[in-house]
């Protein structure tokens, strides 16, 4: 009896130990991800802080003006903490950024955080619509090119991809406005909404499609879609190029694998091989490509927003640069950079979980 009791105790201890190891094996990748994410954000904050100190623009002088007395200028430096050592200034910068205080915009006179909360939803809406269009068309084009390798379909796909990489996005935007707005009158003008709807729809979420839908005004909703279509298509063309090219390359790489040869030997046709066998295996790669395209659209929509007068964070950043508005420049840079880091980190975590689930 004592031996049976000891054996039962050992089994329970082993079970607890195995459970503990399973918990650690699940938590360890998450802890690594959090550490990597925090370290990258710290590096981003360090870069933006260095920008403030290397910039020729004096924040204190910008605050008090060129004609302020020396005592007023010195008081402004003390108020901004510029009289402290650089490590202390950096710690204060981190503390204020974590609290959501990104400073006061010189050009708008509003807190930078409030300006970003007002403009960033427009950029997210534009980039999201563009990446959805680009992902659907890019995947379709890449799959078609891989299925019809060395045919006219493959040639067209590669030409479209090359064109998407090569054409300047601002030139393409201006061309689309000239053709579809000025000549054919198929698309509305620049901006996010017609003047008729700008002051009749209450901005609740900051996303025009959601706000116009919630307002119950069908005309406003259709107008929001019409204004979004052209700039989203221009951005989508840029995303389509990278997605289609990498989709084609990933599928062609997998076509030489043994499991594809086995599937062919069993009588599977090319379409079934691609959609049933290859795409699940390259889903992690495709997800990474789409996420990177989305992140690049979030940070690279500056020219598109400028051409289409889209009131997003890219246009806000451009206006701040022309005005020498350092708080606005740094705040927008920090938010866009943090969004890029967050998207990459979440994608890495999701891809890791997908690959772990596939191995199991």
TrEMBL record:
Gene3D superfamilies, per the entry: MetI-like
MF-aspect GO terms: dipeptide transmembrane transporter activity
Subcellular location(s) per record: Cell membrane
Chief localization: membrane
SUPFAM superfamilies: MetI-like
GO-annotated cellular components: plasma membrane
Annotated ranges, domain ABC transmembrane type-1: 120-351
Family the UniProt entry places it in: Belongs to the binding-protein-dependent transport system permease family.
Protein name: ABC transporter permease
């Amino acid at each position: 009896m004592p031996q049976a009791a000891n054996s039962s105790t050992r089994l329970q201890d082993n079970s607890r130990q195995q459970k503990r190891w399973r918990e650690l094996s699940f938590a360890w990748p998450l802890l690594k991800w959090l550490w990597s994410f925090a370290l990258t954000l710290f590096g981003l904050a360090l870069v933006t802080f260095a920008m403030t100190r290397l910039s020729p623009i004096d924040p204190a002088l910008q605050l008090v003006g060129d004609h302020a007395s020396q005592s007023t200028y010195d008081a402004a430096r003390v108020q901004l903490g510029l009289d402290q050592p650089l490590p202390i200034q950096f710690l204060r910068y981190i503390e204020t950024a974590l609290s959501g205080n990104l400073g006061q915009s010189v050009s708008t006179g509003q807190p930078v955080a409030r300006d970003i909360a007002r403009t960033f939803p427009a950029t997210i809406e534009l980039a999201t619509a563009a990446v959805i269009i680009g992902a659907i068309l890019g995947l379709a084009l890449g799959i078609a090119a891989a299925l019809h390798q060395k045919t006219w379909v493959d040639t067209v796909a590669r030409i479209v991809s090359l064109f998407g990489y090569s054409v300047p996005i601002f030139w393409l935007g201006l061309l689309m406005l000239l053709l579809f707005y000025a000549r054919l009158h198929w698309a509305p003008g620049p901006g996010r909404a017609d003047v008729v709807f700008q002051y009749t729809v209450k901005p609740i979420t900051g996303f025009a499609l959601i706000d116009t839908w919630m307002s119950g005004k069908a005309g406003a909703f259709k107008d929001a879609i019409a204004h979004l279509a052209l700039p989203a298509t221009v951005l989508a063309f840029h995303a389509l190029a990278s997605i289609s090219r990498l989709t084609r390359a990933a599928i062609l790489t997998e076509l030489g694998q043994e499991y594809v040869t086995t599937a062919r030997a069993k009588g599977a046709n090319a379409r079934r091989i691609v959609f049933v066998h290859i795409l699940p295996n390259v889903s992690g790669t495709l997800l990474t490509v789409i996420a990177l395209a989305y992140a690049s659209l979030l940070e690279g929509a500056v020219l598109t927003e400028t051409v289409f007068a889209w009131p997003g964070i890219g246009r806000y950043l451009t206006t701040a640069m022309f005005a020498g508005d350092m708080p606005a420049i740094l705040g927008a840079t920090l938010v866009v950079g943090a969004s890029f880091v967050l998207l990459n980190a979440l994608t890495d975590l999701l891809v890791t979980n997908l690959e772990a689930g596939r191995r199991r």
